[in-house]
Design goal:
Order of helices and strands: EEEEHH
Structural class: alpha+beta
Strand order of the largest sheet: 1-2
Strand content: 35-45%
Radius of gyration: 16 Å
Helix content: 25-40%
Shape: elongated
Number of helices: 2
């Protein structure tokens, strides 16, 4: 499974390591993902998702139901 947030679609970015002598080598910036279980009261079930920590802030702010609804509209969540 790739390291992609299931709610926001965030994935790794590519950039450069830059040394003191300004030599550049390729590197990857991974997404800060956590595996988390959420309870959805409307459906009366638990859902396990791999989400970015920035998505957790959105869940705390808007609620899990609103974030899941938005993710389904954007096509990130198939369930």
């Amino acid at each position: 499974m790739s390291r992609v947030c299931e709610l926001t679609g965030k994935k790794a970015m590519v950039g450069n390591n830059v040394s003191h002598a300004l030599n550049r080598t390729k590197r990857k910036f991974d997404v800060n993902l956590v595996k988390k279980r959420f309870y959805i009261p409307e459906e009366d079930k638990w859902l396990t998702l791999k989400v970015a920590t920035s998505a957790l802030k959105n869940i705390n702010k808007l609620g899990i139901s609103a974030v899941i609804k938005e993710a389904r509209e954007k096509g990130f969540l198939k369930k």
